[in-house]
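At this stage, I needed to go through a protein sequence along with its fold in token form, as given directly below:
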Amino acid sequence: MYPPKHHIETDVNKIHRVIQAYPFATLISKTEDDVLITQLPLILDTQRGKYGVLVGHIDKNNPQSKLFDAQKISVIFQGPDCYISPKVYASSQLPTWNYITVELKGMTKTLKTNAEILDSIENMTRFLETSAEPYSLNREEKRIQSLIDYILGFEITIESLIGRFKLSQDKSAQDMQLAKEKLIQRSTHSPADLINSLLIK
């Protein structure tokens, strides 16, 4: 069986925590002759549905937006990940890659009114703003009003979900702890060099 059972997580609360901590998702839709992929943030509503409902919005010019009304969709949330060198472990091991991901499938539903879309954008902004003085969306602002007709709001009712948490669970308690510390260290590593290099023209 792939992946091994010790890498599979079915605890819905733990899976929800990953989605909430890493809301930038990969959406995958299948057509008759192609696969369409979009990456965008989704906000989880845990109070609706068996496993929750995801809420987001997409540019209407995106070809995938045509597949958001009563269509099946797959979604991936990518948590922290990093290479684990054999030198990390106390015992003799081979190189590996540790990671936390969530995969789910659901049914899409489009939001029909501008008011619903504005509600979803306002809720997303409120969730993502974490500063002491958070930005508050002004629904009447001319810029948002001019863009709203080009935005498709949608919901995804989650029908199945699974966590893939590869965290050296098959190793000794000491090695698992060492791998965990390495993953935490890499997750807090500043990406400044990469970002700065990508912005150089």
Q: What stands out?
A: The first strand starts at residue 8 and ends at 9.
